[in-house]
Every structure is written in C-alpha cells, then in structure tokens.
C-alpha cells in the first residue's frame, strides 16, 4: 500500500506528520535547553548552549513557517463524529494558539539577540551570520524581550502539555483515531 503525501479525509500525509513531530521535538527540546543553558556554572558551556539554542530557534522558525504554509494548502481531516460541539469549536483555536506561539517564541528570541548591547552575532549551526532584526539596541529593550521570551516559553510549553493531554485523552479514554492519524500516514487509495 502506497502512502500519500497530501492529507486525506481520514489521515494526515507524510509531510504533515514529519513536520508535526519534528517541530514538537525541537519545541520541547528548546524549552529544556533554554532552562539548562541559563543555569550552567561554566560561562563557556553556557555560551555554547545559547548559540545552539539560537540555532535551533532559527530552524524552528523556518519549520513552523513551512508547516503553516503546508497546512494552508492541505486541509486537516475532519474530527470524528463522536467529538462534541465544545471541542469542535475549541480545537481550531488551540491549534491556532500553538502556531502563534511557535512563531512568536523564536521571533522574540531573535528580537532579544538583535537588541542586545553585547552585539554577539547569531551563527545558526556555525554556517552563516544571521542578520539582526532592525531594532534599536538598549538595556531596556533587552529586558523587555528577555521577559517576553520567558513568558512565551512557559505559555507555549503549557499549550504543548494541553495538546499532548488532549491527544492522550482521545487515544486512551475516547478510543478514537485522533492520535493514530498523526502517526500513520494516509494511503494513496483513501
């Protein structure tokens, strides 16, 4: 049985599944890395982890933009008939919030390094210098963007936890195909 690239009426295609899990892993990994990097005793190790965090942040931003573009061209399979009206209305809002936070979080990090008075260049995976956003450098702006990045990170991880809890609820309590359709791709015949 051949699998499909595009989504079908019952399942997601390979690109959607790969982007979903890759973004999810990087997003959670970024939260862990961000938590660890600011608590390192060694300044050198902390600096290296911050550079890695910035690299994955830029990668995450690119992947989420790709995911949103792909999503706009590939309709998601409809929810099963067993899903209630409240969940039917809130699920799209929750997904929109996830996308918004996944865009806003790396953008706030990019803004943070752009306004920093330390002027340390961002070099994603040591491949090239990423230009700063056209924002004025200042300690006040750095404080604002650091706080924004921190709050967005914690709100984003709370949304991810809610998303995971909802998927597990569907799989183990409701026993529908919400989770499995994001694991097993659609076939070309569906």
TrEMBL record:
Membrane-spanning ranges: 12-36, 56-73, 93-113, 148-168
Domain Cytochrome b561 bacterial/Ni-hydrogenase: 11-184
Keyword Lyase part of the UniProt annotation: no
Cofactor(s) the record lists: heme b
Pfam families documented for this protein: Ni_hydr_CYTB
Topology term for the membrane: Multi-pass membrane protein
Transmembrane keyword on record: yes
SUPFAM superfamilies hit by this protein: Transmembrane di-heme cytochromes (SSF81342)
Keywords, alphabetical: Cell membrane, Electron transport, Heme, Iron, Membrane, Metal-binding, Transmembrane, Transmembrane helix, Transport
Subcellular compartments: Cell membrane
Main location: membrane
Similarity-based family: Belongs to the cytochrome b561 family.
Protein name: Cytochrome b
Species assigned in the record: Mesorhizobium montanum
